[in-house]
Known about the structure:
Helix content is 38%, strand content 16%. β4 and β5 (179-181) form a beta hairpin.
Amino acid sequence: MTTATIATASERLAPRRKLVVLRKLARQFASVSTSPTAQDFLTWADSYTRADVLIDLVLSGEPTWPELLRDWWSSCDHYPPAVKYLLMRLSRQVEVQPRTMTEDERDYLSGLPEQVTIWRGCYASNERGFSWTTERATAERFPFLTRYRRQGDGPPLLLEAVVERSAILFVKLDRTEHEIVILPDSARVISRHIARDAALPK
């Protein structure tokens, strides 16, 4: 079985089953070839199961997990509750945090003021999130993306908050979203607005 076969099979699966089946496929692949690497597991996952794989790699003691987070975080579109474990671990290992960023991202973080204004597009049920941005327009469009819409959860919101630069775990620039990743309690919300869909006429 090739990695291409595994990837094709995973694309046909319902999201809830993908992670389990990917592991089974990986074991089958490993039995006839070399053992799969951490990069293989992350490649076989899709954007809705990749964060689960990242967490599993951290729990399994994968020594390169900070670099894997650096390279794969932005390709995740769903984060399970257990991602809090990963971020809490990172908050306790300050010396590891630079490894989760590229050189450009480290420079961007060091260039931010000590008090950073950040924004988050969300709904009432997920205000206390870990992903924010320094760009208001970027945050405001997120609640209107199909994969993030929440029906029956009230109007889409735009939060403005302040966070200490030292409390930022890492930043991601590779999707031009200027993502700021923090522990939720690190942010002090200073205003809430109803988000406006930029695609609609003023």
